[in-house]
Description:
It is a single chain. This protein is of the alpha/beta class. It has a single domain (3-143), classed as HUPs (Rossmann fold). It is 34% helix and 20% strand. The protein contains five helices and five strands; from the N terminus they run E-H-E-H-E-H-E-H-E-H. The longest helix has 18 residues, at 92-109. The radius of gyration is 15 Å and the shape is globular.
Amino acid sequence: MKRAIFPGTFDPFTIGHESIVRRALTFIDEVVIAIGINEKKHTHFAIQQREEMIRRFYKDEPRVKVASYSSLTIDFAREVEANLIIRGIRTVKDFEYEETIADINRKLTGIETILLFTEPEMTCVSSTIVRELMSYGKDVSRFLPKGMLPDEKEF
Length: 155
């Protein structure tokens, strides 16, 4: 069984993640969306809120799981018995960095990393930009997967 983790802070404003997960599921049996916990990093939503949003978004896809972690990605991959790591790429600079990290992970642990590009229309938009636009009250729905924007009444 091919089980991959897709690590990151993953909140509803992480651009292009849905397309990467969908493409990964064409050749991977199960994807664990792994939410990194970093107490020093400010995020718009608590871990539980992010987990719930992801579960709700992927409710019709039983091959997508969600979990949080605070250890090294490679340690967490072993913990959930993943044999692959998926990383999303938006730019060539991202690709060069991630390719180097993937090579180090492979040499140290034997765990392969698959690098997947987001759709071309998402390459120039970062999660940071979307969060900033939201803080100014701008509509960011065109950058997000349909149904991923949380209902303000819930949170």
